[in-house]
Design goal:
Blueprint lengths: L8 E6 L6 E3 L11 H5 L3 E5 L6 E5 L4 E4 L8
Antiparallel strand pairs: 1-2, 1-5, 3-4
Length: 74
């Protein structure tokens, strides 16, 4: 047993259809919003890598997920 290993985490949302975590792309998870962005919540479309369905998600839906994100589509 390796006590020195750290658990991996990533930022994501839960699929609205199958409830599996979807990793957020790097362009979405950038730091602090600008004053203009604070007035409007950013909304984006993501495709689940488990069920292959697309969903509409708000930036406020993002959560910390444990583990490694699913591999990208080929």
């Amino acid at each position: 047993m390796n006590h020195g290993s750290k658990k991996q985490h990533y930022r994501g949302v839960l699929c609205i259809r199958c409830n599996q975590p979807i990793a957020l792309p790097a362009m979405i998870k950038n730091g602090e919003p600008s004053p203009a962005e604070e007035l409007h919540s950013r909304v984006f479309t993501l495709r689940c890598r488990a069920c292959y369905k697309e969903g509409l998600y708000a930036e406020s839906d993002s959560i910390d997920c444990e583990g490694v994100p699913r591999a990208t589509f080929s």
